Amino acid sequence: MDVSFRQIKAFVAVARLNSFTRAAALLHVAQPTLTVQIRKLEEALSVRLFERTSRSVTLTQTGRDLLPVLARLVQDLDGVIGDVRNQGTGYQGLVRIAALPTAAAGLLPRAIKSFRTAHPGADFRIRDVIARRILSLVEAEEVDLGITGGPANTGNVDVLLAFEDSMHVVFPHTHPLAEAQAVTPDLLLLYPLIMMDPDTSVRAVVEAGFHAAGLIPTAAGEATYMMTAAGMVQAGLGITFLPSSAKEIDAFPNLRSRPIEAVGFVRQISLVKKSGRPLPSLPAMFARHLREMIGA
Q1: Are residues 231 and 283 in the same domain?
Q2: What is the CATH number of the domain that holds 11?
Q3: By the 8 A CB rule, do 104 and 98 touch?
Q4: Residue 199: which CATH number?
Q5: Cα separations in angstroms, 79 against 3, 72, 137, 142
Q6: How does pLDDT run across 77-126, given as a tens digit for each residue?
Q7: Taking the complete model, does pTM exceed 0.85, yes or no?
Q8: 260 and 274: one domain?
Q9: Are 262 and 205 in contact (CB under 8 A)?
């Protein structure tokens, strides 16, 4: 099978633009040349990647299956080639990070801004995903660093930094919790609970906190993303639990939050890397910058 990078790049361009004409212009090649590249790729793979009519170009099922894999390949290879070409020009390189949404929205923007003071050419690629996905991305070496919640209890990653983030209960400003003398786990069970997805670190911490108090919470609703949970609270569907560092509460002026007065409602945040693999120079420097910034 003889497949070239130009053919793969041509496929990704046509797939994303749904047009041979626009893809040829983007890649600065003649349209007949682009058509030949796609045809040769299909012949090499022995599959049809596009359904073509006189008016439209659409991906076949095989093409849809291949697109995310080949698009990532093009992106990564373009990045490596760019790094090599820019050596010695002051360009610093790329830091790839998978992070909890709270860290991606709060900690990382501030850290990147201050890091670029000393390294103005540094580029960052941030993937904000839930905790379980972060570890798999680090283990697969799709990212250099991960910022995940809960204990990183796997032998495939090294913990470079650990700190804590407490859980707060989130409720409308007119809710009885606003006037409660103390926010305790047994008081919280009097109200419908909007819980985060079971794969999130927030859900694990909240359930562990209730269990430590001898209580079992029952979800009246679930959400994968914190913004969704906050929106459900805004609509009066219940109360929810978010980390104290969560920025989502700021998007809803009528919501309030309070800490929970009980042990266990604390989430460990860990900065991790692939075990047994040294970090590239720039990610290693950024990891040190995070440690200094947090004071660990």
Answers
A1: no
A2: 1.10.10.10
A3: no
A4: 3.40.190.10
A5: 20, 11, 18, 13
A6: 776 666 565 555 445 678 999 999 889 988 999 999 999 998 888 889 99
A7: no
A8: no
A9: no
